[in-house]
Write a structure and sequence with these properties.
The complex is a heterodimer of chains A (258) and B (280). By secondary structure, chain A is an alpha/beta fold. Chain A has helices at 44-52, 91-95, 104-117, 133-145, 163-180, 191-197, 228-246, and strands at 5-13, 19-28, 33-37, 59-64, 67-68, 76-79, 151-155, 183-188, 200-204, 211-216. The N and C termini of chain A lie far apart (46 Å). Chain B folds into 2 domains: 8-54; 61-270, Orthogonal Bundle (MetI-like fold). The longest helix of chain B has 37 residues, at 186-222. Classes of the chains: A alpha/beta (258), B mainly alpha (280).
């Protein structure tokens, strides 16, 4: 259960403003994990929202398994920066929220499996207000996987939790991915996160965003966050980001811009 | 019974005992505090009339007299007849007004253009004082139950409408997006996200609307009526029986408080999920 993503010459501008994405190309293989890294405000999230069908009216083509994205679909899971749990539903009901089948008896095996995979064994009947930030984000992960999507899009999913929780969540995400093998496209600000999770890191330029450079991270998993190769890649990515960000000072979308 | 004050988050295990004792120690105190003022008023009333005789009986009847009158009215079946007539009207009017308001608010809340088309007119109608409707309702609908229930429905409609529309407009866009991501239909979006998220506002609207229903009920029964607590009031006035008037007023207070208490219980149950400031 994993899909191919093809992004072909995608451009996007919002009504009032300047172009956000320009002629962007990227292809992601089944089960691959790709991170989008770029200066803040460069349009990473916009690309993700286009792929999820939340955002429309772009030029170019967005394809998942050869099908053009026209509206949100259950084949594409989306994880937001915040958990966005429905506060009136229990953990269990939040997880099953996106399922068409509402029958408890039919969904129970799947829910049990997901709850076990995101390590929320005892929490199925709790309400969101009773959860910590990390727990809530785990519920959100389970919810986005409940429809068994072939693609999971993640928009800075762990940026709101503390460093230690973030590392645990990254490990958990990989453990779930290893069992389900969905294709992942992840927006992040965090170079270490990109390096720890991804097969490839796409470095985007500032607005309007294009793919500036693609860095392959050919390291076996589980990765050692402090391994020499990781540190080298980190330095390389940092440099690429700095170059990508530097054109912001003269290009579009800056206070000093045209 | 559920406690009125619940901690916003689950207490850590070691705190549970402390919270439990605090809670059990506090509840009766809260009820005593709530009862203190009515009890003091009752005593003052008793002292001012029966004991000190500061008022004439045709001005302010003594509580003992009011109690006797209430017992007489109850024994004769009159009290029950009036109370059930009023409850029936209030519930019918409230039910119709609140249901209509629910439907209209969802449509107005969801659509900017419908809001622009309807809301200014509705706000205009809302600003008409309740009694101003009475002559027209009588003119159009004659003397009977219809104009009374209509008046009460008008009274119940607006609080529900105003609150629910602003509730819908206050729904977190981020939660609505969760619905979009899962491809929910418009109807499902309303049913599964917008209405539950606006529920705190809806329940506030219902409580205010119910209060308005009682208010408009009396307005409706003061005029051209032969039953109900409002009729009792006017009947007592016409026959110089302030004790009957007092029975009517106290019964209205009791019914209003009871019905609001009922809705508050519903509210507490339905909104157990909220994580909001509970007062301290």
């Amino acid at each position: 259960m994993s899909s191919t993503i093809r992004i072909e010459r995608v451009s996007k501008s919002f009504k009032a403003g300047q172009p956000v994405l320009h002629d962007l190309n990227l292809e992601i293989r089944p089960s691959e994990i790709v991170s989008l890294l770029g200066p803040s405000g460069c349009g990473k999230s916009t690309l993700l929202r286009l792929l999820s069908g939340l955002e429309r009216d772009h030029a170019g083509r967005l394809l998942v398994d050869g099908q053009e994205i026209v509206a949100p679909s259950r084949a594409v899971g989306f994880m937001f920066q915040e958990p966005r749990l429905l506060p009136w539903l229990t953990v269990r009901d939040n997880i099953t929220f996106g399922l068409q089948v509402r029958d408890r008896r039919q969904t129970e095996p799947l829910v049990r499996e997901l709850i076990e995979q995101v390590q929320l064994g005892e929490c199925a009947d709790l309400l969101p207000r009773q959860l910590s930030g990390g727990m809530a984000q785990r519920v959100a992960l389970a919810r986005s996987l409940a429809t068994q999507p072939g693609v999971l899009l993640l928009d800075e999913p762990f940026s709101a939790v503390d460093a230690l929780t973030r590392m645990r969540l990254q490990e958990l995400l990989l453990s779930v991915w290893q069992r389900r093998r969905f294709t992942m496209l992840l927006v992040t600000h965090d170079i270490d996160e990109a390096l720890y999770l991804s097969d490839r890191v796409a470095v985007l330029s500032g607005r309007p965003a294009t793919v500036r450079e693609i860095v392959h991270v050919d390291l076996p998993r589980p990765r050692d966050r402090r391994a020499q190769e990781m540190l080298q890649q980190r330095a390389h990515l940092l440099e690429a980001l700095r170059v990508a960000g530097s054109n912001q000072l003269t290009g579009y979308g800056t206070p000093f811009g045209v | 019974m559920r406690s009125n004050t619940r901690p916003a988050t689950r207490p850590a295990p070691q705190d549970v005992a402390a919270v439990e004792t605090r809670r059990t120690a506090r509840l009766p105190t809260a009820q005593l505090v709530a009862l203190a003022l009515p009890a003091a008023l009752l005593v003052a009333w008793f002292v001012a009339t029966d004991v000190a005789q500061l008022f004439r009986a045709n001005q302010l009847p003594a509580p003992t007299q009011v109690l006797r009158t209430a017992a007489d009215l109850a024994a004769g079946g009159d009290l029950f007849r009036h109370v059930s007539a009023s409850i029936g009207r209030a519930l019918a009017g409230f039910g119709i007004g609140a249901t209509l308001a629910l439907l209209v608010s969802v449509v107005v809340g969801l659509s900017k253009i419908v809001e622009q088309a309807l809301d200014p007119t509705l706000q205009g109608i809302r600003s008409v004082p309740s009694l101003a409707w009475v002559p027209f309702l009588l003119l159009w609908m004659g003397i009977g139950e219809t104009p009374r229930v209509t008046l009460i429905a008008i009274g119940a409609f607006f609080p529900v409408y105003v609150n629910l529309v602003s509730g819908i407009r206050n729904v977190d866009r981020k939660l609505v997006e969760v619905g979009y991501v899962f491809g929910l239909s418009r109807a499902d979006l309303v049913r599964r996200i917008i209405v539950p998220a606006a529920l705190p506002y809806l329940l506030t609207g219902l409580r205010v609307g119910l209060g308005q229903a009682w208010l408009f009920l009396v307005a409706a029964e003061l005029i051209a009526s032969v039953s109900g607590l409002g009729f009792m009031l006017i009947d007592g006035q016409n026959n110089a029986r302030p004790d009957i008037m007092m029975v009517s007023i106290l019964t209205l207070a009791l019914l209003g408080k009871l019905s609001d208490g009922l809705l508050r219980t519903v509210e507490r149950r339905a909104l157990a999920w909220t994580d909001t400031f509970q007062g301290r």
